[in-house]
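Field: sequence (string)
Field: structure_tokens (string)

Example rows 1 and 2, in order.
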Amino acid sequence: MHTREEKLEAFGRLIDVLDELRVKCPWDRKQTFDSLRPNTIEEVYELCDASINHDWKNVCKELGDVLEHVIFYSIMGREMGEFDIADICNKEADKLIFRHPHIYPPVDEPVQEASLKEVKSADDVMDNWEQIKMKEKDGNRTVLSGVPQALPSLIKAFRVTEKASSVGFDWENKEDVWAKVHEELDELEVELRKGDKEKSIDEMGDFIFSLVNAARLYNINPDTALERTNQKFIRRFGYVEQQTLKQGCQLKEMTLGELDALWDEAKKMENPDAEHSVSDRSK
């Protein structure tokens, strides 16, 4: 690994390269906050893909792409006279220090309110974090105001239940959440049988929300869990499609029984010791 001096030198080198590109490259020169936004979102998703696959080589690459965007935004902020990379770094450091009073006790003011928990675990840190954010000069004014409206719905559901929990709005025992999950599932099934589309949509949302809440209580990130299942399904379905083509057939020409048999083959290849049941295409 590199020394601190080498890290600072590398960071400075990247800033120098981007400063030069901003002046000399036609594409870089014409970029704005609005034009760069879609690229930034794409880079973050590519980082997430590499991370969930533990592809460390690409994690390193995609982190570089995200860092490039951070520095690029700082260059545009400097051009407008609003902020530069030093402001970004200092504001972030100040925020982290303020939100970690158990590591950096305040010097010029009393330790923050007695309402903060004594930190004994990561959960205590998170509970205090939300309360401290509301006390910041430019912080959130309500418990849920810090949840971006543009977040994907699954992540947003996780964050709002997490924030509500930080102020005590939660189940006393995590096991109690399953009664709510079953209640929401029952209500969904009722509306689906009735064929009421609008109420079915509402109840489906309530059911998914209850599952997200359950995941949070058991320290499982539902977005990560669902993405693992997405990748697993894509991988296994890809095997089914490949084997079908090898037989000179198209998927639509295969019977459901034949497709199930190939699906079970795909599962067995991933986990040879597991027992697989027919039509179990969701696991």
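Row 2 begins here:
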Amino acid sequence: MHHHGYLWTGPKDRFDQEALRRPPHPEPPPPGSRPELVQRYREVASAFPASELPPLETAYWLLKPPALVRGTWGEAEDAAAWLGERLAEFAPRFAAGGGREGGYLARHVGSAVARLRAGGDVSLGFYLERPSYLSLALVTCSPNRERPELPCPQRSRGKPLSDSAS
């Protein structure tokens, strides 16, 4: 078991485009479906995997391009440390002042360690100044508890796993 880190920041209105954050249905529309339904399915099927937007369900990060992986760690503590570093980096930009406090951020890191050790995923989101949004995720892989059928983004591309926090 290992953990992949993901980070997205961008305009809040882009984050709110939920249709782009949902994977396509596993089966295409049946033959004879309305042309607009078929066209919409094709759009979602091609746009979702290539989009850098955070998926609505954390495990679906594993379907995104491997280049979006910000780091891979074998230990929950190392993955949570990366999360803590990102929180500290962005905290000065948090729209809510209470989210900048060290104790608040430390609780997120501690909770992440416990969740990752149990095989779960971690997903955090924060409003930033200028209506922007920060999404941070740590996804447990090989296999993912919620979606064991999803491939590892690094192994699926033939890359070896690394312990770097790139």
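free_text_note (row 2): The radius of gyration is 17 Å.
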